TrEMBL record:
<dbReference type="Pfam" id="PF01906">
    <property type="entry name" value="YbjQ_1"/>
</dbReference>
<comment type="similarity">
    <text>Belongs to the UPF0145 family.</text>
</comment>
<protein>
    <recommendedName>
        <fullName>UPF0145 protein BTN82_16655</fullName>
    </recommendedName>
</protein>
<dbReference type="InterPro" id="IPR002765">
    <property type="entry name" value="UPF0145_YbjQ-like"/>
</dbReference>
<dbReference type="InterPro" id="IPR035439">
    <property type="entry name" value="UPF0145_dom_sf"/>
</dbReference>
Length: 106
């Protein structure tokens, strides 16, 4: 299934807009991850533990979105939009929400 942030697919024509589809993934950020992320923030550099958690959440949400679009017999999802938040500030949870439009192609 084609999944894209664009609103069109080059070389393909959208025959039918089926529905808006969405999915989410919530990742718990444990204390150890929090401590290392805080140290990275303090000393500078990238927090690989948080990056991994974010990537995992994004992949899970995108896979779930594909499943929901497949249930509609969609060929693609266009106009993907990701929203990322950490409710409650630092630590606790990481939430990734993705939404797009399920379509059938000609």
């Amino acid at each position: 299934m084609i999944v894209t942030t664009t609103h069109a697919i080059q070389g393909r024509e959208i025959a039918e807009y089926l529905d808006i589809v969405s999915a989410e993934s919530v990742q718990g950020i444990n204390v150890v991850r929090d401590v290392f992320a805080g140290l990275r923030d303090f000393f500078g550099g990238r927090s690989q533990t948080l990056e991994r958690a974010l990537k995992e959440a994004r992949v899970q949400a995108t896979d779930e979105l594909r499943e929901r679009a497949s249930e509609l017999r969609a060929d693609a999802v266009v106009g993907l939009d990701y929203e990322i938040s950490m409710p409650g500030g630092r630590g606790g949870m990481l939430v990734v929400f993705v939404t797009g439009t399920a379509v059938r192609l000609k």
